[in-house]
Amino acid sequence: MAAIQPFVLRWGIISTGGIASAFVKDLLVDPKTRAVHDVVHKVTAVGSRSVEKAQSFIGENAGGDKSIKAYGTYGEVYADKNVDAIYIGTPHTYHYINALDSLKAKKHVLCEKPVTSNAAELRSLLATAKEQGVFFMEALWTRFQPLALEVKRIAEEGSLGQPVVLHADLSGDFDIYNIPKTHRILDPDLGGGALLDLGPYPFIWAVLALYEHPSNKLAKPSNTIASMVKTPLTGVDRSTAFTLTFSPSSPSASNTLAAQAILSCNINVAAYPTGVVIRYERGNISIAAPIYCPKSFTVQYYEPGKSSTIAREETKHFDYVGRGMHFQADEVARCVRDGKSESELWGHDKSLLEMDVFDEVRRQGGYKFPPGVEKVV
Ligand SMILES: NC(=O)c1ccc[n+]([C@@H]2O[C@H](COP(=O)([O-])OP(=O)(O)OC[C@H]3O[C@@H](n4cnc5c(N)ncnc54)[C@H](OP(=O)(O)O)[C@@H]3O)[C@@H](O)[C@H]2O)c1
Questions:
Q1: Where does ligand 1 bind, in terms of residues with CB under 6 Å?
Q2: pTM for this structure?
Q3: Residues 209-239: pLDDT tens digits?
Q4: Which residue has the least CA distance to atom 17 on ligand 1?
Protein backbone atom coordinates (compact mmCIF):
# COMPACT_ATOMS: atom_id res chain seq x y z
CA MET A 1 0.00 0.00 0.00
CA ALA A 2 1.38 3.47 -0.91
CA ALA A 3 2.26 5.69 2.08
CA ILE A 4 -0.07 8.65 2.63
CA GLN A 5 1.67 11.84 1.52
CA PRO A 6 1.90 14.62 4.13
CA PHE A 7 -0.03 17.84 3.51
CA VAL A 8 2.33 20.59 2.34
CA LEU A 9 1.64 24.17 3.50
CA ARG A 10 3.41 26.87 1.48
CA TRP A 11 4.34 29.89 3.61
CA GLY A 12 4.96 33.52 2.73
CA ILE A 13 6.87 35.44 5.42
CA ILE A 14 6.17 39.11 6.08
CA SER A 15 9.15 41.00 7.55
CA THR A 16 12.72 40.00 8.25
CA GLY A 17 13.01 40.82 11.97
CA GLY A 18 14.11 38.76 14.95
CA ILE A 19 11.00 36.66 15.40
CA ALA A 20 10.40 36.05 11.69
CA SER A 21 13.91 34.62 11.59
CA ALA A 22 13.24 32.32 14.59
CA PHE A 23 9.96 31.18 13.05
CA VAL A 24 11.49 30.33 9.68
CA LYS A 25 14.31 28.37 11.29
CA ASP A 26 11.68 26.29 13.14
CA LEU A 27 9.53 25.88 10.01
CA LEU A 28 12.51 24.29 8.29
CA VAL A 29 13.14 21.73 11.06
CA ASP A 30 12.15 18.29 9.75
CA PRO A 31 8.71 17.57 11.33
CA LYS A 32 9.72 13.93 11.82
CA THR A 33 12.11 15.09 14.60
CA ARG A 34 8.96 15.87 16.62
CA ALA A 35 7.07 12.77 15.45
CA VAL A 36 4.90 14.75 13.03
CA HIS A 37 4.25 12.85 9.81
CA ASP A 38 0.99 14.30 8.47
CA VAL A 39 2.10 17.86 7.58
CA VAL A 40 5.21 19.57 6.23
CA HIS A 41 6.12 23.21 5.69
CA LYS A 42 7.68 24.95 2.73
CA VAL A 43 8.74 28.59 2.65
CA THR A 44 8.01 29.94 -0.83
CA ALA A 45 8.31 33.73 -0.39
CA VAL A 46 9.81 36.33 1.92
CA GLY A 47 8.68 39.96 1.83
CA SER A 48 10.55 42.89 3.27
CA ARG A 49 10.55 46.64 2.76
CA SER A 50 13.90 46.02 1.09
CA VAL A 51 14.61 43.23 -1.41
CA GLU A 52 18.23 43.04 -0.23
CA LYS A 53 17.03 42.34 3.31
CA ALA A 54 14.71 39.63 1.99
CA GLN A 55 17.61 38.05 0.10
CA SER A 56 19.96 38.08 3.06
CA PHE A 57 17.15 36.74 5.31
CA ILE A 58 16.82 33.74 2.96
CA GLY A 59 20.59 33.34 3.02
CA GLU A 60 20.79 33.38 6.81
CA ASN A 61 17.68 31.40 7.68
CA ALA A 62 17.00 29.11 4.72
CA GLY A 63 20.48 28.32 3.42
CA GLY A 64 20.01 30.67 0.47
CA ASP A 65 17.35 28.38 -1.04
CA LYS A 66 16.90 29.70 -4.61
CA SER A 67 13.33 28.39 -4.82
CA ILE A 68 12.22 31.00 -2.24
CA LYS A 69 11.16 34.29 -3.83
CA ALA A 70 12.66 37.44 -2.24
CA TYR A 71 10.37 40.47 -2.57
CA GLY A 72 11.00 44.13 -1.78
CA THR A 73 7.34 44.75 -0.89
CA TYR A 74 4.85 42.88 1.26
CA GLY A 75 2.22 43.24 -1.48
CA GLU A 76 4.11 40.89 -3.79
CA VAL A 77 3.91 38.14 -1.14
CA TYR A 78 0.14 38.62 -0.79
CA ALA A 79 -0.20 38.29 -4.56
CA ASP A 80 2.07 35.23 -4.95
CA LYS A 81 0.07 32.21 -6.17
CA ASN A 82 2.61 29.85 -4.59
CA VAL A 83 1.77 31.12 -1.11
CA ASP A 84 -1.07 29.50 0.87
CA ALA A 85 -0.48 31.00 4.32
CA ILE A 86 1.16 34.19 5.50
CA TYR A 87 3.15 34.64 8.69
CA ILE A 88 3.20 38.24 9.97
CA GLY A 89 6.18 39.27 12.12
CA THR A 90 5.99 43.08 11.91
CA PRO A 91 5.66 45.38 14.99
CA HIS A 92 2.31 45.17 16.82
CA THR A 93 0.72 48.24 15.30
CA TYR A 94 1.28 46.93 11.75
CA HIS A 95 -0.39 43.56 12.36
CA TYR A 96 -3.84 44.88 11.48
CA ILE A 97 -2.98 46.28 8.07
CA ASN A 98 -0.66 43.40 7.13
CA ALA A 99 -3.27 40.81 8.15
CA LEU A 100 -6.07 42.71 6.42
CA ASP A 101 -4.12 42.84 3.15
CA SER A 102 -3.30 39.11 3.44
CA LEU A 103 -6.91 38.16 4.09
CA LYS A 104 -8.16 40.31 1.21
CA ALA A 105 -5.79 38.30 -1.02
CA LYS A 106 -7.50 35.14 0.31
CA LYS A 107 -4.44 33.92 2.18
CA HIS A 108 -4.59 32.04 5.49
CA VAL A 109 -2.93 34.04 8.26
CA LEU A 110 -0.77 33.35 11.30
CA CYS A 111 -0.17 36.72 12.97
CA GLU A 112 2.32 37.43 15.76
CA LYS A 113 1.16 38.40 19.23
CA PRO A 114 -0.42 40.68 20.27
CA VAL A 115 -2.68 39.98 17.34
CA THR A 116 -3.73 43.64 16.95
CA SER A 117 -3.47 46.96 18.80
CA ASN A 118 -7.03 46.70 20.13
CA ALA A 119 -10.15 44.54 20.09
CA ALA A 120 -11.90 46.61 17.41
CA GLU A 121 -9.12 45.90 14.92
CA LEU A 122 -9.35 42.20 15.69
CA ARG A 123 -13.13 42.14 15.24
CA SER A 124 -12.64 43.77 11.84
CA LEU A 125 -10.05 41.15 10.83
CA LEU A 126 -12.25 38.27 11.95
CA ALA A 127 -15.13 39.61 9.87
CA THR A 128 -12.83 39.81 6.84
CA ALA A 129 -11.46 36.29 7.42
CA LYS A 130 -15.04 35.00 7.54
CA GLU A 131 -16.03 36.84 4.34
CA GLN A 132 -12.97 35.47 2.54
CA GLY A 133 -13.39 31.94 3.92
CA VAL A 134 -9.82 31.65 5.18
CA PHE A 135 -8.09 30.53 8.37
CA PHE A 136 -6.86 33.10 10.89
CA MET A 137 -4.86 32.60 14.09
CA GLU A 138 -2.73 34.59 16.52
CA ALA A 139 0.75 33.08 16.89
CA LEU A 140 0.47 32.18 20.59
CA TRP A 141 2.94 29.36 20.15
CA THR A 142 3.07 28.44 23.85
CA ARG A 143 -0.44 26.97 23.70
CA PHE A 144 0.66 24.34 21.16
CA GLN A 145 3.82 23.14 22.87
CA PRO A 146 3.74 19.57 24.24
CA LEU A 147 4.39 20.88 27.76
CA ALA A 148 1.25 23.04 27.68
CA LEU A 149 -0.84 20.09 26.47
CA GLU A 150 0.50 17.96 29.34
CA VAL A 151 -0.08 20.67 31.98
CA LYS A 152 -3.66 20.93 30.79
CA ARG A 153 -4.18 17.17 30.87
CA ILE A 154 -2.88 16.87 34.46
CA ALA A 155 -4.72 19.98 35.63
CA GLU A 156 -8.05 18.68 34.37
CA GLU A 157 -7.73 14.99 35.18
CA GLY A 158 -9.24 15.61 38.62
CA SER A 159 -6.60 14.71 41.28
CA LEU A 160 -5.62 18.34 41.94
CA GLY A 161 -9.20 19.57 42.47
CA GLN A 162 -10.24 23.05 41.43
CA PRO A 163 -7.74 25.81 40.57
CA VAL A 164 -7.72 28.58 43.18
CA VAL A 165 -5.05 31.10 42.22
CA LEU A 166 -2.48 31.50 39.43
CA HIS A 167 0.59 33.75 39.46
CA ALA A 168 2.43 34.46 36.22
CA ASP A 169 5.00 37.07 35.28
CA LEU A 170 6.98 37.74 32.15
CA SER A 171 9.64 40.38 32.41
CA GLY A 172 12.61 41.20 30.24
CA ASP A 173 15.47 43.63 30.69
CA PHE A 174 15.39 45.60 27.44
CA ASP A 175 18.10 48.04 28.60
CA ILE A 176 15.53 50.81 28.15
CA TYR A 177 17.82 53.68 29.16
CA ASN A 178 20.28 52.86 26.41
CA ILE A 179 18.16 51.80 23.42
CA PRO A 180 16.72 54.38 20.99
CA LYS A 181 13.28 55.72 21.85
CA THR A 182 12.20 54.50 18.41
CA HIS A 183 12.82 50.86 19.45
CA ARG A 184 9.53 48.96 19.24
CA ILE A 185 9.57 48.26 23.00
CA LEU A 186 9.59 52.03 23.79
CA ASP A 187 7.88 53.69 20.83
CA PRO A 188 4.16 54.36 21.44
CA ASP A 189 3.63 54.51 17.65
CA LEU A 190 4.67 50.83 17.58
CA GLY A 191 2.48 49.92 20.58
CA GLY A 192 5.52 49.94 22.90
CA GLY A 193 5.53 48.93 26.54
CA ALA A 194 5.25 45.78 28.63
CA LEU A 195 1.57 44.92 28.24
CA LEU A 196 1.36 44.40 24.50
CA ASP A 197 4.75 42.81 24.13
CA LEU A 198 5.01 40.58 27.22
CA GLY A 199 1.44 40.51 28.58
CA PRO A 200 0.21 37.81 26.16
CA TYR A 201 2.36 35.19 27.94
CA PRO A 202 1.10 35.51 31.54
CA PHE A 203 -2.34 35.85 29.94
CA ILE A 204 -2.08 32.61 27.95
CA TRP A 205 -1.47 30.61 31.18
CA ALA A 206 -4.54 32.20 32.79
CA VAL A 207 -6.53 31.15 29.74
CA LEU A 208 -5.21 27.59 29.74
CA ALA A 209 -5.60 27.01 33.48
CA LEU A 210 -8.70 29.07 34.31
CA TYR A 211 -10.69 30.21 31.27
CA GLU A 212 -10.44 26.76 29.63
CA HIS A 213 -10.98 24.83 32.87
CA PRO A 214 -14.09 22.65 32.43
CA SER A 215 -15.74 24.15 35.55
CA ASN A 216 -15.49 27.64 34.00
CA LYS A 217 -17.59 26.73 30.93
CA LEU A 218 -15.64 29.33 28.90
CA ALA A 219 -17.12 32.18 30.97
CA LYS A 220 -15.18 35.45 30.63
CA PRO A 221 -13.54 36.94 33.74
CA SER A 222 -16.14 38.66 35.91
CA ASN A 223 -13.65 41.36 36.82
CA THR A 224 -10.36 42.88 35.62
CA ILE A 225 -8.28 45.16 37.85
CA ALA A 226 -5.12 46.75 36.49
CA SER A 227 -2.47 49.34 37.05
CA MET A 228 0.55 50.54 35.12
CA VAL A 229 3.84 52.29 35.85
CA LYS A 230 4.83 54.41 32.84
CA THR A 231 8.36 55.24 31.84
CA PRO A 232 8.98 58.99 31.43
CA LEU A 233 11.20 58.08 28.45
CA THR A 234 8.22 57.77 26.08
CA GLY A 235 5.15 57.32 28.31
CA VAL A 236 4.62 53.61 27.54
CA ASP A 237 4.04 51.12 30.38
CA ARG A 238 7.28 50.01 32.00
CA SER A 239 5.41 47.67 34.39
CA THR A 240 1.86 46.41 34.29
CA ALA A 241 -0.02 44.30 36.84
CA PHE A 242 -3.50 42.93 36.23
CA THR A 243 -5.80 40.54 38.02
CA LEU A 244 -8.49 38.48 36.34
CA THR A 245 -11.25 37.09 38.54
CA PHE A 246 -13.32 34.14 37.40
CA SER A 247 -16.46 33.62 39.46
CA PRO A 248 -19.90 32.03 38.96
CA SER A 249 -22.26 34.42 37.18
CA SER A 250 -25.03 33.53 39.70
CA PRO A 251 -25.43 31.04 42.60
CA SER A 252 -27.13 28.57 40.24
CA ALA A 253 -24.88 29.23 37.21
CA SER A 254 -23.23 26.32 35.42
CA ASN A 255 -19.83 28.08 35.49
CA THR A 256 -18.74 27.15 39.01
CA LEU A 257 -15.05 28.16 38.89
CA ALA A 258 -14.02 30.70 41.53
CA ALA A 259 -10.37 31.56 40.94
CA GLN A 260 -8.02 34.46 40.28
CA ALA A 261 -5.08 35.06 37.98
CA ILE A 262 -2.49 37.59 39.16
CA LEU A 263 -0.46 38.60 36.12
CA SER A 264 2.40 41.00 35.56
CA CYS A 265 4.99 42.10 33.01
CA ASN A 266 7.89 44.50 33.02
CA ILE A 267 10.43 45.78 30.50
CA ASN A 268 13.31 46.74 32.81
CA VAL A 269 13.98 43.69 34.97
CA ALA A 270 15.02 40.20 33.95
CA ALA A 271 12.55 37.31 34.02
CA TYR A 272 12.19 35.61 37.41
CA PRO A 273 12.97 31.87 37.34
CA THR A 274 9.71 30.69 38.93
CA GLY A 275 7.65 31.28 35.80
CA VAL A 276 4.04 30.28 36.49
CA VAL A 277 2.57 28.85 39.68
CA ILE A 278 -0.94 27.43 39.67
CA ARG A 279 -2.36 26.49 43.05
CA TYR A 280 -5.17 23.96 43.27
CA GLU A 281 -7.28 22.68 46.16
CA ARG A 282 -5.12 19.56 46.38
CA GLY A 283 -1.71 20.59 45.04
CA ASN A 284 0.36 22.92 42.85
CA ILE A 285 1.78 23.11 39.37
CA SER A 286 4.99 25.16 38.95
CA ILE A 287 6.11 25.87 35.40
CA ALA A 288 9.74 26.82 34.85
CA ALA A 289 10.69 30.06 33.10
CA PRO A 290 10.79 31.14 30.35
CA ILE A 291 7.00 31.05 30.42
CA TYR A 292 6.68 31.45 26.63
CA CYS A 293 8.64 28.24 26.05
CA PRO A 294 9.09 26.30 29.29
CA LYS A 295 10.98 23.02 29.22
CA SER A 296 9.84 21.56 32.55
CA PHE A 297 7.12 21.68 35.17
CA THR A 298 6.57 20.18 38.60
CA VAL A 299 3.33 18.89 40.08
CA GLN A 300 2.93 18.54 43.83
CA TYR A 301 0.07 16.57 45.36
CA TYR A 302 -0.91 17.21 48.99
CA GLU A 303 -1.37 14.48 51.57
CA PRO A 304 -5.14 13.84 51.51
CA GLY A 305 -6.78 16.30 53.92
CA LYS A 306 -3.44 18.01 54.75
CA SER A 307 -2.52 20.91 52.49
CA SER A 308 0.61 21.55 54.58
CA THR A 309 2.22 18.25 53.52
CA ILE A 310 3.36 17.30 50.03
CA ALA A 311 2.69 13.59 49.57
CA ARG A 312 4.08 13.25 46.08
CA GLU A 313 5.97 15.40 43.58
CA GLU A 314 6.72 14.80 39.92
CA THR A 315 8.82 16.86 37.48
CA LYS A 316 8.40 16.46 33.73
CA HIS A 317 10.95 17.59 31.15
CA PHE A 318 10.41 18.30 27.46
CA ASP A 319 12.93 18.40 24.67
CA TYR A 320 12.74 18.72 20.88
CA VAL A 321 14.71 19.98 17.92
CA GLY A 322 14.09 23.69 17.33
CA ARG A 323 12.80 26.51 19.47
CA GLY A 324 9.18 25.32 19.70
CA MET A 325 7.49 27.67 17.21
CA HIS A 326 6.85 24.80 14.78
CA PHE A 327 4.06 23.26 16.87
CA GLN A 328 1.80 26.24 16.07
CA ALA A 329 2.76 25.93 12.38
CA ASP A 330 1.70 22.26 12.43
CA GLU A 331 -1.64 23.37 13.86
CA VAL A 332 -2.10 25.93 11.07
CA ALA A 333 -1.28 23.29 8.43
CA ARG A 334 -3.77 20.79 9.88
CA CYS A 335 -6.51 23.42 10.19
CA VAL A 336 -5.96 24.57 6.58
CA ARG A 337 -5.88 20.97 5.35
CA ASP A 338 -9.17 20.28 7.19
CA GLY A 339 -10.88 23.47 5.95
CA LYS A 340 -11.18 25.02 9.44
CA SER A 341 -11.48 28.76 9.96
CA GLU A 342 -9.89 28.71 13.43
CA SER A 343 -7.91 26.53 15.80
CA GLU A 344 -9.62 24.70 18.64
CA LEU A 345 -6.59 25.30 20.88
CA TRP A 346 -6.14 29.03 20.36
CA GLY A 347 -9.36 30.09 18.67
CA HIS A 348 -10.77 33.51 17.88
CA ASP A 349 -12.59 33.72 21.25
CA LYS A 350 -9.27 33.62 23.13
CA SER A 351 -7.61 36.32 21.03
CA LEU A 352 -10.76 38.45 21.44
CA LEU A 353 -10.71 37.91 25.20
CA GLU A 354 -7.04 38.94 25.22
CA MET A 355 -7.63 42.14 23.28
CA ASP A 356 -10.77 43.03 25.31
CA VAL A 357 -8.78 42.53 28.54
CA PHE A 358 -5.80 44.51 27.20
CA ASP A 359 -8.08 47.39 26.13
CA GLU A 360 -9.48 47.46 29.67
CA VAL A 361 -6.01 47.24 31.26
CA ARG A 362 -4.85 50.18 29.12
CA ARG A 363 -8.02 52.13 30.02
CA GLN A 364 -7.45 51.61 33.75
CA GLY A 365 -3.72 52.29 33.35
CA GLY A 366 -4.34 55.47 31.32
CA TYR A 367 -2.29 54.30 28.31
CA LYS A 368 -3.68 55.84 25.10
CA PHE A 369 -1.95 55.23 21.78
CA PRO A 370 -1.00 58.32 19.75
CA PRO A 371 -3.67 59.42 17.24
CA GLY A 372 -3.79 57.25 14.12
CA VAL A 373 -2.12 54.18 15.64
CA GLU A 374 -5.41 52.30 16.04
CA LYS A 375 -6.80 51.73 12.55
CA VAL A 376 -10.23 50.72 13.89
CA VAL A 377 -11.64 52.11 17.16
N1 LIG B 1 6.37 34.85 19.53
C2 LIG B 1 7.38 35.39 20.20
O3 LIG B 1 8.02 34.77 21.06
C4 LIG B 1 7.80 36.76 19.87
C5 LIG B 1 9.06 37.21 20.26
C6 LIG B 1 9.45 38.49 19.87
C7 LIG B 1 8.56 39.29 19.18
N8 LIG B 1 7.32 38.83 18.85
C9 LIG B 1 6.38 39.69 18.13
O10 LIG B 1 6.82 39.80 16.79
C11 LIG B 1 6.64 41.13 16.31
C12 LIG B 1 7.98 41.65 15.79
O13 LIG B 1 8.94 41.57 16.80
P14 LIG B 1 10.51 41.44 16.48
O15 LIG B 1 11.20 41.32 17.77
O16 LIG B 1 10.75 40.44 15.44
O17 LIG B 1 10.78 42.91 15.89
P18 LIG B 1 11.95 43.38 14.93
O19 LIG B 1 13.14 42.51 15.09
O20 LIG B 1 12.07 44.84 15.15
O21 LIG B 1 11.37 43.10 13.47
C22 LIG B 1 10.22 43.72 12.98
C23 LIG B 1 10.28 43.70 11.46
O24 LIG B 1 9.08 44.30 10.98
C25 LIG B 1 9.33 45.01 9.78
N26 LIG B 1 8.76 46.36 9.89
C27 LIG B 1 7.76 46.86 9.15
N28 LIG B 1 7.47 48.11 9.47
C29 LIG B 1 8.33 48.45 10.47
C30 LIG B 1 8.54 49.63 11.21
N31 LIG B 1 7.84 50.74 11.02
N32 LIG B 1 9.51 49.64 12.13
C33 LIG B 1 10.25 48.53 12.37
N34 LIG B 1 10.09 47.38 11.68
C35 LIG B 1 9.14 47.33 10.73
C36 LIG B 1 10.84 45.00 9.56
O37 LIG B 1 11.10 44.05 8.53
P38 LIG B 1 11.42 44.53 7.02
O39 LIG B 1 12.37 45.68 7.16
O40 LIG B 1 12.01 43.33 6.43
O41 LIG B 1 10.14 44.93 6.36
C42 LIG B 1 11.42 44.52 10.85
O43 LIG B 1 12.57 43.73 10.67
C44 LIG B 1 6.06 41.94 17.48
O45 LIG B 1 4.68 42.10 17.32
C46 LIG B 1 6.35 41.07 18.71
O47 LIG B 1 5.34 41.14 19.71
C48 LIG B 1 6.94 37.58 19.16
A1: 15-20, 48-49, 53, 89-92, 94, 112-113, 139, 141, 184, 197, 292
A2: 0.98
A3: 999 999 999 999 999 999 999 999 999 999 9
A4: 17
Of 13, 14, 15, 97, which is best to mutate to test ligand 1, by the most ligand atoms within 8 angstroms of its C-beta? 15
Using the mean position of ligand 1's atoms as its centre, give its distance from the Cα of residue 250 in Å: 44
Residues with Cβ within 8 Å of residue 236, at least 6 apart in sequence: 185, 186, 187, 188, 192, 193, 194, 230, 367
Residues facing residue 283 across a β-bridge: 280, 301
The yes/no answer on whether domain 146-317+348-365 falls in CATH 3.40.50.720 is no
Residues 6 or more apart in contact with residue 196 via CB below 8 angstroms: 92, 114, 117, 358
Task: Using DSSP bridges, classify how beta strands 259-266 and 237-246 pair: parallel, antiparallel or unpaired.
Answer: antiparallel
Give 316 Cα–ligand 1 centroid separation in angstroms. Answer: 33
Average pLDDT over residues 160-189: 98
Q: Which of 13, 143, 184 to mutate to test the pocket of ligand 1 (most atoms within 8 A of CB)?
A: 184
Q: Would you tell me which CATH number, out of the four given (1.10.230.10, 3.40.1130.10, 3.30.70.270, 3.40.50.720), belongs to the domain 7-142? A: 3.40.50.720
Domain map (residue ranges) of the chain: 7-142, 146-317+348-365
CB 229 within 8 A of CB 237: yes
How many angstroms is it from 1 CA to the middle of ligand 1?
46
- Residue range 23-47: average pLDDT? 98
Nearest ligand 1 atom to the CA of 292 is 3
